[in-house]
Specification:
By secondary structure, the protein is mainly α. It is 75% helix and 0% strand. The two termini are 20 Å apart. The C terminus is likely disordered.
Length: 176
């Protein structure tokens, strides 16, 4: 097994640096979940609105005005990354080989690449459009891909607890 993806080694590392103790305290996990969901609300609230406007919905709002919300989306994303990391290293057997987590990470990677493509190819056309104009087709496609990815991330996140890979159960069983 690849030592980087060894759930037992990851959990031992989390114990050594103190994350495991914090997350397994009485309030550690619930507080991390609150922060995670608050971050998700910030992220999806800003990115979702931006994507809807890119797709031509919510006309009447200037893209430059919506773009002012991007720092809130970034803050939400960072909150989710930090707490998500804490979830994974605290119970790696539940997450590493979980198809829902793998799907979630893949969708986040696609959303990130999509965002890079947007900022490399579409902002000039979007900024040139008036508040009531349809954005260029490229921007509308990018917005639809982004919104689809983030909705998929939310769905995959909810499915995480429904998939328990065999490796998860083996961490808790004793060898015969």
């Amino acid at each position: 097994m690849d030592p980087i993806l060894d759930p037992i080694a990851i959990e031992e590392w989390a114990q050594n640096v103190g994350i495991w103790g914090v997350m397994n305290s009485r309030w550690g996990w619930p507080i991390a979940e609150i922060i995670h969901f608050f971050g998700l609300s910030l992220l999806f609230g800003t990115v979702g609105m931006f994507d809807l406007r890119l797709m031509g919905i919510a006309r009447g709002i200037k893209m430059k005005e919506l773009h002012k919300l991007v720092p809130f989306g970034i803050a939400g994303y960072l909150m989710c990354v930090v707490t998500g990391f804490m979830f994974v290293v605290t119970h790696p057997g539940q997450y590493i080989y979980n198809p829902a987590v793998q799907s979630k990470i893949l969708l986040m990677a696609i959303a990130g690449a999509n965002m890079a493509i947007f900022y490399a190819t579409a902002p000039a056309g979007v900024n040139a459009a008036g508040p009531d104009d349809l954005p260029p087709v490229r921007a509308r496609i990018i917005g639809a891909i982004s919104l689809s990815c983030w909705l998929g991330v939310i769905v995959a996140g909810r499915l995480v607890t429904f998939y328990r890979p065999p490796e998860f159960w083996c961490l808790w069983c004793t060898p015969s």
